[in-house]
């Protein structure tokens, strides 16, 4: 692997509460992912992992911190020369970031235009980003469909005519259409049957190997993270409590919260009482 494709430093995000005060969703989170590498971000609901994913792709503006892709600043809302960006500059910045960082959501059905066939969906993505025209666009669409394992029938079908796994394959193809440096996957296989999950994970591993794209895999499923990632970052209450190689983090965790997550997964000899004990100990901290 080469240098870092993605470098995140000191991300912070808080939200105002209805009755006054603020709640912190992300607190000083930093990490990096090398080109062709894969990072898992894990934690329970409310840990802040999805907020980090949404900040990465510009759906949420951080209060502080920076995001760089191959050394280029890509922090949402970042000002130039101390001045706010105008509407035209903001749109250009969004498109520039989107060409480098793409996201695949848990439920692709809500992010796919129900009026467009799979082929039209990919053509729209290429046109939006000024990538390929005419016969070149037609050829690129064919390559993308083939890359994710969708045939002619699926290419001419609208989202309602596709299975959950096929819709997720289309969402991945759309994300790859602009040839991003980083692909963020937010619980991207959580809604799929186990057998379909395995197919999508194999597809992602192949894509990573063939294209060199860096993956940021946000998930609550430790088995999935173990299968697809090189490194893992564990989040609790907006903070990163542990990070390191996935094998080490999941086999020899150092932080009590990581041990709690692992103890919550049923396995041979599993004792639920141990999970209750660990959670009680954490509550006292």
UniProtKB/TrEMBL annotation:
MF GO annotations = ATP binding; ATP hydrolysis activity
Q: Which terms are listed as keywords in the entry?
A: ATP-binding, Nucleotide-binding, Transport
Please name the SUPFAM superfamilies in this protein's record. Answer: P-loop containing nucleoside triphosphate hydrolases (SSF52540)
A UniProt-annotated Pfam family: ABC_tran
Which BP terms in the Gene Ontology apply to this protein? Answer: peptide transport; transmembrane transport
Q: Where are the transmembrane segments?
A: none
List the SMART domains hit by this protein, alphabetically. AAA
Q: Where is the ABC transporter domain?
A: 6-262
Q: Which family does it belong to?
A: Belongs to the ABC transporter superfamily.
Q: Which PANTHER family match?
A: D,D-DIPEPTIDE TRANSPORT ATP-BINDING PROTEIN DDPF-RELATED, TRANSPORT ATP-BINDING PROTEIN
Protein name per its UniProtKB record: ABC transporter ATP-binding protein
